[in-house]
UniProtKB/TrEMBL annotation, chain B:
Keyword set includes Transmembrane: yes
Designated name of the protein: ABC-2 family transporter protein
Cell membrane found in the keyword field: no
Sequence intervals crossing the membrane: 16-36, 76-97, 118-143, 186-205, 217-237, 249-271
Alphabetic keyword roster: Membrane, Transmembrane, Transmembrane helix
């Protein structure tokens, strides 16, 4: 080829390939230059920390990036490949786990862990699917129900209107449970005219595609101050028979030593246990005043755990639903130093009979991890979130802990 | 192949003067942006520190450090990019119409060259594509130069040094031109090439059927958009997200290739049998 | 041989060509004659594949037009067809670049004959000189057929003489030429065959020599018979 004649073309092509190539190589190098954080053991069994997944945020001046910290190291958004990024940020969710196992059944279903159920035989799904074009139409509320029979590889899928749907402005699906040939769908509904919030349990015969019943567990009016009703968290993998509904009041109180600052204080007013197997409902009177101030945090088997911030750690109160009494009241001590910030910023996760706590330090450069056994009250693991040794740390960097997840439990 | 390269080279040479003007304009506007932004920041610092006796720390607490992101969001800088973008968009049309409506009807010659006529179409498309990427490369080369000036003008303590990738990410709008990963870059500019091929086909519809052709061309653009966006449109109308993100990506790649192939096929037909000079 | 068989063409609702047929042989100068707007230029464009037609077909040496044929047939339209920013030398280089049949020697000869300067920009040329460059670029190709659209219109008398001279020279000799005109006088003595067009059809196709010898008529005489009933 005549180089002289084509010099513009050759020059242009060379410059393009070279500059774009160099840029993306440099971008990769720059992405890898973010400091690597890890969770380091202080005491206990380091295997306990392996399933921890901390969602966080790194910033340095106006440079900021989402990151995930695990025991072995961290990963930043920018370090992920394009195809990984496509999967979104929440990659250890229950939905993602089901998508991997039942790719076709999960196709076209909304991504929200609350809408799914899985046991040995079935995968269940119930959702109020959002209408992208029209938005919500109050009279439109309908459950989209689907059930996969794992053994027969059989899928049932249908739509069922929400009973009395014209009464509601919002219907949130909170939990789905398949048992004894029926599907129980637990929802929180906002009613249209009386400005009240209700907890419902819908029973659906998914084989005959019929609504069997609609029970209202709690109904609170917002007229006498702010009230909340919601089902207490549970372990999705455990398939427990009890669902506990909590009714709580929100009160605005002036801060003790603040300058007129107002904080909201939540109080548990009433609890109700719903037995998914028998359909029995049992109201639970609140045992003691100090329990009322604690937050109902997890139902596990027949135990309801309350959590509350204490002076030197996290207080966990275990309440037996069947016996109707408190069976233990313990404080999981978080080791503290003068650098510590308030425990209020800590991320707490109760799951799998364990408590996981991540506490950021005041300087927002490091943090602490605590893992405790809920049953025995023993501390299983203590660790620190910190940049790996030998990392070249820039001045003024900060990490923010946003969420704590435990892989394998949802 | 050989004639295609000759045509491509010819098209590039034809645009070269305007291209040089664009390059010079970009350099001048962006250098202006660097100097204007830096001076403004330094003026503020001087007024605070010398005029109002504030300490350096106090100034930094109020105004923060200067970063290159301030420069790329400056009006002069954004104008340079806008001018290049608009010029090239206009040239997508001009590259064809100049051969019919300039003082001399070069289309007579181009269409009677002893080569497949589709080579003319492909050469014009490639020329546009290379000119776009050329300006993208110019920007990538200019960044380090401009950062050098920025570092020379602003003292260390007042400056936050960022990598080019950081600057692009934090500017928000530059990520449109320089996406985060190479795969996205290839996908985005590939889609851009597809759009050029579709527009060329629409232009050829107009050149073949004149007034009626405008409607055919617009219809063709709508059809191409409909096919390319069909996975998203189907999801919008059925209100269900059927495809996983990775599947949607590959579906779009396949549809993009299909639309490009269809445009080339139709244009080949129009050029061979329907064109009017 | 160029065979035009029954081609039809509409512009909007107006049927311009209603089935035109004629042939043009190598070594002959065939002249398409008709008033302005009769579709002479359209026929040349149709032969070159620059405008669609329907009905029949056009064959060049027995084949439909294709990319190889563009080495064998060249079109010299009324308008100039190279970008006006080019110099004559650049236009020549372009042709040399794309056509295997470019004859540089003949191009130089024509350049000299027309007294054109290579370094002149096309934008600055007079209408007459533009016509000359057009002719130069067309005739410097080793093509079997040359189509010329109104080569004598709108140019000065001296240029016309020069161009007419080309027709009788070795530059044309054994090629086939199709030429259009609405003004027959200048070239009557040059042409071998006349094709008279009217109302979208060929009203008469005849060999000039033959009709002169047999019936003692000139082309203009025949035109009078045909166009003035």
């Amino acid at each position: 080829m005549h180089v002289k004649k084509y010099w513009r073309l050759i020059l242009l092509a060379t410059v393009i390939v070279f500059s774009v190539g160099v840029y993306y190589v440099q971008a990769k190098i720059a992405a890898d230059r973010f400091p690597d954080f890890a969770i380091r053991k202080v005491s206990g069994d380091e295997r306990e920390a392996e399933p921890i997944y901390i969602d966080g945020f790194y910033n340095e001046g106006n440079k900021e990036e989402t990151l995930w910290i695990r025991a072995g190291g961290s990963e930043y958004w920018r370090q992920r490949s394009y195809f990984d990024r496509l999967e979104g940020g929440n990659f250890i969710s229950f939905t993602k786990h089901l998508q991997k196992k039942y790719r076709n059944f999960m196709r076209g279903k909304e991504e929200n862990d609350a809408y799914y159920f899985e046991d040995r035989d079935f995968v269940g799904y119930a959702a109020i699917e959002t209408n992208l074009l029209r938005g919500f139409e109050p009279t439109d509320f309908a459950f989209t129900v689907a059930c996969l029979d794992k053994k027969r590889k059989d899928t049932v899928s249908f739509r069922l209107p929400v009973p009395d749907r014209e009464r509601y402005t919002m219907v949130y699906v909170e939990k789905v449970h398949v048992m004894n040939g029926v599907m129980k769908v637990i929802t929180t509904n906002q009613s249209y005219n009386s400005n009240s919030i209700e907890s419902h349990v819908y029973t659906i015969d998914w084989k005959r595609k019929k609504m069997l019943s609609d029970e209202t567990v709690f109904s609170v009016s917002q007229k006498n101050g702010e009230m909340l009703v919601y089902p207490v968290s549970f372990d999705r993998t455990k398939l427990d028979r009890y669902v506990v509904f909590s009714k709580r009041s929100l009160e605005e109180v002036p801060e003790k030593d603040g300058e007129g600052d107002i904080t909201t204080q939540e109080k548990t007013v009433e609890l109700a246990a719903y037995d998914l197997e028998t359909g029995e409902r049992k109201k639970i009177g609140l045992p003691e005043k100090n329990v009322a101030e604690a937050e109902p945090a997890l139902v596990s088997g027949s135990t309801l755990y309350f959590q509350k911030l204490a002076e030197n750690g996290i207080q966990i109160i275990a309440y037996d639903l069947e016996k109707g009494k408190i069976i233990s009241d313990r404080v999981f001590a978080v080791p503290r130093s003068e650098r510590d910030s308030s425990l209020r910023d800590s991320k707490i996760k109760l799951t799998n009979e364990k408590i996981y706590v991540a506490v950021p330090d005041t300087d927002a450069k490091t943090g602490k991890i605590l893992i405790g056994d809920l049953k025995s009250g023993k501390t299983l693991y203590e660790g620190r979130i910190a940049a790996k040794e030998g990392e070249d740390l820039p001045k003024g960097y900060r990490i923010t802990l946003l969420d704590l997840n435990v892989e394998g439990s949802f | 192949m050989n004639k295609y390269l000759k045509l491509l080279n010819f098209e590039l040479n034809r645009f070269f003067k305007i291209y040089l003007v664009l390059i010079v304009l970009t350099v001048v506007l962006q250098m202006t942006a660097v100097i204007v932004e830096c001076r403004q920041y330094l003026k503020q610092a001087n007024e605070m520190i010398y005029g109002m006796n504030a300490s350096k720390e106090q100034f930094l607490a109020d105004y923060g450090q200067m970063s290159f992101v301030h420069i790329v969001t400056n009006g002069w800088f954004m104008w340079s990019i806008a001018i290049c973008a608009v010029t090239l968009i206009i040239y997508v049309f001009f590259i064809w119409y100049r051969d019919w409506f300039a003082r001399n009807t070069f289309a007579y010659r181009l269409l009677t060259l002893p080569t497949d006529r589709i080579n003319v179409y492909l050469a014009k498309a490639t020329a546009i594509f290379l000119m776009v990427l050329g300006l993208i490369s110019l920007q990538l080369i200019l960044f380090p130069v401009e950062q050098g000036i920025f570092r020379a003008m602003i003292p260390d303590d007042f400056r936050q040094d960022l990598s080019t990738a950081d600057i692009i990410t934090f500017s928000k709008y530059l990520t449109v031109l320089f996406p985060g990963t190479l795969i996205e870059f290839v996908a985005r500019y590939g889609a851009g090439l597809m759009v050029v091929l579709v527009l060329f086909t629409a232009i050829l519809f107009e050149r073949c059927y004149r007034f009626r052709g405008i409607f055919f061309g617009a219809g063709y653009c709508a059809l191409a958009a409909g096919i390319f966006l069909s996975p998203i449109l189907i999801e919008m109308f059925t209100e269900k997200v059927y495809l996983y993100p990775i599947e949607r990506f590959f579906a779009e790649v396949a549809l993009g290739l299909f639309v490009s192939g269809m445009s080339i096929f139709i244009s080949r037909f129009l050029l061979n049998y329907k064109i009017r000079v | 041989m160029i065979e035009v068989k029954n081609i039809k063409k509409k512009f909007g609702r107006k049927q311009v060509l209603k089935g035109v047929s004629f042939t043009a042989k190598k070594g002959e100068i065939t002249c398409l004659i008709g008033v302005n707007g009769v579709g002479k230029t359209t026929i040349l464009k149709a032969i070159m594949g620059l405008t669609p037609y329907y009905g029949g077909e056009i064959l060049i040496n027995g084949k439909r037009i294709n990319k190889a044929a563009y080495e064998k047939i060249t079109f010299i339209p009324d308008a100039f067809i190279m970008p006006s920013s080019m110099k004559i030398s650049e236009a020549m280089a372009f042709m040399k670049d794309f056509y295997a049949g470019w004859n540089e020697e003949r191009a130089r000869e024509l350049l000299e004959f027309f007294r054109l300067k290579e370094e002149d920009r096309i934008a600055n040329l007079s209408k007459g000189n533009v016509a000359k460059v057009n002719l130069l670029l067309g005739l410097a190709l080793d093509a079997d057929f040359v189509l010329m659209d109104e080569p004598f219109s709108g140019i000065d008398i001296f240029t016309r003489e020069q161009i007419a001279e080309v027709f009788t020279s070795h530059l044309i000799e054994d090629r086939g030429v199709i030429i259009t005109t609405h003004e027959i006088n200048d070239i009557e003595h040059l042409i071998d065959k006349a094709v008279l067009l009217d109302e979208g059809i060929v009203v008469k196709e005849f060999a000039v020599e033959e009709i002169r010898e047999r019936e003692g008529k000139s082309v203009v005489d025949v035109m009078r018979e045909v166009y003035r009933p």
